[in-house]
Design a protein that fits this description.
With 233 residues, the protein is mainly α. It has one domain. The chain is built from seven helices and no strands.
Length: 233
């Protein structure tokens, strides 16, 4: 039984935009920087070379993440604006056809034809473009494209994620760099998976295992390549 004002239901969909960018950025920062450090360390480099490579990876990665997210989400935003303009012009040119279109949408969701038409009429009177954007085009405020938010979130969380393996290698003897950085990075990934799943309302074990296993695979692959390159040199 539900009651007005009952706070027992907690929804997470409003967090999708920034949470996706934050998790992607932090995960990329940890995995790419740790993999780079492990790969360089496996080639028998000294601490200074490892740190320079790691810092360069952090700067390049954060910049690339910000630019990539901004361009990608901006393209989504441009498409959304173009679709809204197309819908606005259609509403001006043929309002009756658009009303019938909206009613068909509601019929397809299970409403009786008469009720579907009445709902379409009332929603059109209230906010015609908003009704078509939401119910015909599938646009919602929770999923709206926000390029700057995505760019800054990705860059910031990438930098934080990348800083973790850098701190680990800076405080560790070079001979122990690979195991220490690997363990620290995998622990960070596991924590990231647990926190992001908690914030997003997803199963904790599955999310934690997913990011940790892929991170381990990436680091093992780059360590193997680094060893081969080091042996060849």
């Amino acid at each position: 039984m539900s009651h007005h004002g009952d706070d027992s239901e907690h929804h997470y969909v409003h967090r999708i935009g920034w949470l996706r960018a934050a998790v992607l950025g932090a995960n990329d920062g940890i995995v790419s920087t740790a993999s780079l450090i492990v790969g360089v360390a496996a080639a028998s480099a000294d601490r200074e070379t490892i740190l320079i490579a790691g810092i360069a990876g952090l700067v390049a990665g954060a910049t690339a993440m910000a630019a990539g997210e901004y361009v990608s989400v901006s393209s989504q935003s441009d498409t959304e604006r173009a679709d809204l303009e197309t819908e606005r012009l259609a509403l001006e040119a043929s309002p009756e056809e658009e009303l019938a279109e909206l009613a068909e949408v509601y019929e397809g969701r299970g409403l009786e034809p008469a009720l579907a038409k009445e709902v379409a009429i009332q929603l059109t009177a209230h906010d015609a473009l908003g009704a078509h954007a939401r119910d015909e085009l599938g646009m919602h405020d929770t999923g709206a494209a926000r390029p700057l938010q995505a760019a800054w979130t990705s860059a910031a969380t990438f930098s934080i994620g990348a800083g973790l393996p850098l701190i680990a290698v800076a405080l560790t003897p070079v001979a122990q760099a690979i195991p220490v950085v690997s363990v620290a990075s995998l622990a960070s990934l596991a924590l990231l998976g647990a926190v992001s799943s908690k914030v997003g309302g997803a199963p904790v074990v599955r999310a934690t295992a997913r990011v940790t296993l892929w991170g381990a695979f990436a680091m093992a692959l780059t360590a193997g390549i680094g060893s081969l390159v080091g042996a060849a040199i």
